[in-house]
Write a structure and sequence with these properties.
0% strand; mainly alpha; 110 residues; 4 helices; single chain
């Protein structure tokens, strides 16, 4: 199986670029820009009708069902959004560190 090396790919966020002078290659600037864009998109989304329905489902699902809102669909969309944010943060962290390890290790106390 061929080995995947971080030197083979252009990374969006990397620990290697933290001390370089150009602003567009500075890791902290790129991460801050991604966070600002993500906050703006989420702010816009939760202002839409679907976003408001998701917010109200989280607050009072019984009232939402009484209003005719599909709470099951809203829960699934909320879980999809939260898992997408977790996946994005994991991907950025793996690029920043330069590796990802998905192996599970168990430690015995003996």
């Amino acid at each position: 199986m061929p080995e995947i090396n971080v030197d083979q790919f252009d990374l969006l966020v990397s620990l290697r670029y933290i001390k370089e002078i150009p602003l567009l290659q500075n890791t902290l600037f790129i991460v801050a820009l991604i966070i600002i864009i993500l906050i703006g998109v989420l702010y816009w989304f939760f202002g839409t009708e679907l976003g408001a329905a998701i917010r109200t489902t989280g607050c009072n699902a019984a009232m939402d069902r009484a209003q005719g809102i599909n709470t099951g669909l809203n829960r699934v969309i909320g879980l999809m959004l939260s898992n997408a944010l977790v996946a994005l943060s994991g991907a950025l962290l793996a690029q920043y560190q330069g590796f990802a390890d998905s192996s599970r290790r168990t430690h015995s106390s003996t």
